[in-house]
């Protein structure tokens, strides 16, 4: 089995403040990890993916960055938040056999 | 660029009725996923469809895939209130496990 932990679950931050969202995974699965964002009432957009420690690919230009300091840890960061960074951030982890892709419980970010 | 379109965007249906949600995608893909999302919650995996003609069923939901038509359907049979949620289809882009999501279909089932 596999488990995805995300924290914090909810965050309210002022514009211009920094951000750090963390995703850690437990269990046996494939090495790839993904960050998605869902804006209010909309679908999900892939932000970053990582195939291993220190390896990050960005899918869209933005105010955010990601890091993979450990095999089972994926971090989403920003130095200065914008209002448009508000949304629901989800970490995703594929099943080892490729049967499905699981999502963590998510982190709600409101930038005020 | 891979695009995924769902319709309808919103579906209000009476309990006991049947309906189908459609998911069209623009380029060839190996896998198609269906997810359910309850308000304020994360995504719950429903189905993964891996090949042309694949059909999977779980309870009142049945998903199918036609890779030639680049179309997947999610059929709801005899809807019940508990099925009220938003349903997303997503396509795996280039066998990388990177998902391109549809816009979602918000389903409301009323008595």
Element layout with pairings:
The complex is a heterodimer of chains A (about 110) and B (about 110).
Chain A: E1 2-7, E2 10-13, E3 19-27, E4 33-38, E5 44-52, E6 55-58, E7 65-70, E8 73-78, E9 87-94, E10 101-103, E11 107-111
Parallel strand pairs in A: 2-11
Antiparallel strand pairs in A: 1-3, 3-8, 4-5, 4-9, 5-6, 7-8, 9-10, 9-11
Chain B: E1 4-7, E2 10-14, E3 19-25, E4 32-37, E5 43-49, E6 55-58, E7 61-66, E8 71-76, E9 85-92, E10 99-101, E11 105-110
Parallel strand pairs in B: 2-11
Antiparallel strand pairs in B: 1-3, 3-8, 4-5, 4-9, 6-7, 7-8, 9-10, 9-11
Description:
The complex is a heterodimer of chains A (112) and B (111). Chain A has 112 residues and is an all-beta fold. Chain A has one domain: Immunoglobulin-like (Sandwich), CATH 2.60.40.10. Chain A has no helices and eleven strands. Chain A has strands spanning 2-7, 10-13, 19-27, 33-38, 44-52, 55-58, 65-70, 73-78, 87-94, 101-103, 107-111. Chain B is mainly beta and 111 residues long. Chain B has a single domain, classed as Sandwich (Immunoglobulin-like). Helices cover 0% and strands 56% of the residues of chain B. In chain B, the strands form two sheets. In chain B, strands 2, 4, 5, 9, 10 and 11 form a six-stranded mixed sheet that branches. A five-stranded antiparallel sheet of chain B has the order 1-3-8-7-6, with no helix packed on it. In chain B, a hairpin with a 5-residue loop joins β4 (32-37) and β5. The interface between A and B is medium-sized, with 24 and 20 residues.
């Amino acid at each position: 089995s596999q488990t995805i932990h995300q924290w914090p679950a909810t965050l309210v931050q002022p514009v211009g403040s920094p951000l750090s969202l963390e995703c850690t995974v437990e269990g046996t699965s494939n090495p790839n990890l993904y960050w998605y964002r869902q804006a209010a009432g909309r679908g999900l957009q892939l932000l970053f993916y990582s195939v291993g420690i220190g390896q990050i690919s960005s899918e869209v230009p933005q105010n955010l960055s990601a890091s993979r300091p450990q095999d089972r840890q994926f971090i989403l960061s920003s130095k200065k938040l914008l209002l448009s960074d508000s949304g629901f951030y989800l970490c995703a982890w594929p099943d080892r056999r490729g049967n499905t892709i699981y999502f963590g419980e998510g982190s709600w970010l409101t930038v005020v | 660029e891979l695009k995924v379109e769902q319709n309808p965007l919103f579906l209000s249906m009476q309990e006991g009725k049947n309906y189908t949600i459609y998911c069209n995608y623009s380029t060839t893909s190996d896998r198609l996923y269906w997810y359910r999302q309850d308000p304020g919650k994360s995504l719950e995996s429903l189905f993964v469809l891996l090949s042309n003609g694949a059909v999977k069923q779980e309870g009142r939901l049945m998903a199918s895939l036609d890779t030639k038509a680049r179309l997947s359907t999610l059929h709801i049979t005899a809807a019940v209130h508990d099925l009220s949620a938003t349903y997303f289809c997503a396509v795996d882009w280039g066998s990388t496990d990177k998902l391109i999501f549809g816009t979602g279909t918000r389903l409301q089932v009323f008595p």
